[in-house]
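Lecture notes, part 5. Sequence design as translation. It can be helpful to think of inverse folding as translation between two languages: the language of shapes and the language of residues. The source text, in structure tokens, appears below.
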């Protein structure tokens, strides 16, 4: 290969072609070489990048090949090498589709969002939220109050544009509506230009605006065209509460007063769970996994008046989830406010906890639920456990079979064995009947899968890289589809691929990207 030529891997069908080309010869010459290698005519050939920092979308003649990044260069070719016989029903080829149709089919890398001045906090959050299908569909179908209508309309438009594009979208309309409705996001930095913002604060603002959508049409669209019953909604009255909302049961008890002071229970709404992060040298509490951090965030102490004691006392607070959503957000409490009384130009700074907090690609919330919800989730969980136990038992019996005689003895029962088996069946039926009679009624939450056991699958992560929330950089990591090992990294307008194992490394402990907002979907 001469100093002027480059090599590119072209993937077409199940084949990979290594083509050596001269960047100065232009796109037309490259496509001619692709045609010679694959047989795909230039007019039908569509080259899409599989390497970061290459061209956006489909390669066009205006692209300067001399600006290609360092190797490796990998591209995906779409196009047929032979013209088919015209069928009775016209066949539509992928290369004949418009860019919007190609994007909808998920061919190639999805589109990113252009950074419009320190808007990585917004871009990364939007890329995660737009993959919550129910929320996205409800947003498109519902109207809201005049104050939030423009914000929600532009938000929905941005989602639609990204889904139907092969190139990065500049969300100009949404950014304008966001800064108009929430002026804090128009704050200027000390060096001029827009200041960096907190992704969680943006998410809170987005949820506040979207909660103004409460029409039946929106809720129907969010749940596949069927409006959940009031019982299933469990008090959820708008799009956010129905798709991301948690109903929290908070119980206060006064240990000092003992049984003389009755517990106080109240209910409140939330849009996310919080993982409290504590630990480090000299700390009594060491949190290293999200489950422990969530549990810590659901307990605490408050000072409150005790009627029995006739004075203020310390009460123990315990919160549990009494309504589960189809989509769940978990915030890693990585930022905290540190006062700086010695500083002359500011009162404090927002610092970051770098501690490593491990998480998996599934989250079981059973232990964080109220007794009512636990009882509902317990039925399918026990059923699943019984099925697994039965499978294990059968497997063990199969492994213990040593010869045909033993197998025959196992299969052929005596009359006594049959009588005993009947007795056991009768006892089992009775116990199952009692269990069925005692089975709880009600719903754990709207839109949850049948026989939902309280397990959520991770589908999106907003990561932060840097030492504090007022600087650094946000990036989104989004699963391509439910159960898939393929993920997309959305670094503003740059999009690349990775695997689940790469996402699970975003657990902190250094200066690299670490998870800040985790998004989950109820698992089938």
């Amino acid at each position: 290969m001469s100093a002027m030529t480059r090599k590119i891997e072209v993937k077409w069908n199940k084949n990979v072609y290594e083509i050596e080309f001269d960047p100065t010869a232009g796109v037309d010459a490259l496509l001619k070489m692709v045609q010679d290698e694959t047989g795909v005519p230039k007019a039908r050939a569509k080259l899409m990048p599989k390497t970061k920092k290459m061209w956006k979308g489909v390669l066009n003649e205006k692209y300067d090949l001399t600006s290609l990044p360092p190797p490796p260069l990998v591209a995906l070719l779409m196009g047929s090498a032979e013209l088919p016989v015209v069928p009775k029903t016209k066949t539509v080829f992928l290369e004949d589709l418009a860019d919007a149709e190609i994007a909808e089919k998920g061919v190639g890398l999805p589109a990113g969002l252009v950074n419009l001045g320190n808007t990585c906090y917004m871009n990364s959050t939007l890329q995660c939220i737009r993959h919550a299908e129910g929320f996205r569909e409800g947003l498109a179908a519902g109207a809201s109050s005049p104050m939030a209508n423009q914000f929600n309309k532009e938000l929905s438009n941005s989602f639609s544009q990204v889904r139907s594009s092969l190139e990065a979208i500049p969300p100009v309309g949404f950014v304008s509506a966001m800064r108009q409705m929430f002026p804090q996001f128009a704050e200027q930095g000390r060096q001029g230009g827009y200041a960096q913002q907190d992704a969680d604060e943006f998410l809170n603002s987005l949820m506040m605006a979207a909660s103004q959508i409460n029409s039946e049409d929106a809720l129907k669209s969010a749940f596949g065209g069927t409006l959940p019953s009031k019982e299933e909604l469990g008090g959820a009255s708008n799009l956010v509460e129905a798709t991301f909302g948690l109903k929290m049961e908070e119980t206060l008890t006064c240990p000092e007063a003992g049984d003389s002071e009755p517990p106080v229970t109240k209910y409140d709404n939330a849009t996310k769970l919080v993982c409290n992060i504590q630990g480090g040298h000299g700390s009594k509490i060491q949190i290293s996994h999200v489950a422990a951090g969530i549990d810590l965030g659901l307990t605490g102490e408050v000072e409150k008046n005790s009627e029995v004691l006739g004075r203020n006392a310390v009460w123990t607070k315990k919160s549990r989830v009494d309504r589960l959503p189809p989509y769940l957000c978990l915030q890693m409490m990585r930022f905290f406010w540190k006062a700086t009384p010695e500083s002359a130009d500011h009162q404090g700074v927002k610092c970051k906890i770098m501690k490593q907090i491990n998480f998996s690609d599934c989250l079981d919330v059973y232990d964080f639920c109220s007794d009512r919800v636990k009882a509902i989730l317990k039925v399918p969980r026990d059923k699943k456990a019984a099925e697994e136990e039965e499978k294990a038992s059968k497997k063990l019996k199969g492994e213990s079979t040593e010869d045909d005689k033993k197998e025959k003895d196992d299969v052929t029962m005596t009359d006594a064995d049959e009588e005993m088996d009947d007795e056991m069946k009768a006892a089992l039926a009775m116990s199952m009947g009692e269990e069925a009679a005692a089975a709880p009624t009600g719903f754990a939450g709207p839109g949850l899968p049948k026989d939902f056991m309280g397990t959520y699958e991770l589908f999106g992560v907003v990561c932060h890289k840097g030492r504090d929330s007022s600087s650094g950089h946000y990036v989104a990591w989004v699963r391509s589809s439910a159960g898939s090992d393929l993920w997309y990294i959305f670094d503003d307008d740059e999009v690349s691929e990775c695997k689940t194992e790469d996402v699970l490394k975003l657990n902190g402990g250094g200066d690299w990207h670490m998870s800040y907002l985790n998004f989950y979907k109820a698992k089938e």
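The translated text above is only one of many valid answers, since several sequences can fold into similar shapes. Residues 410-420 have pLDDT under 50 and may be disordered.
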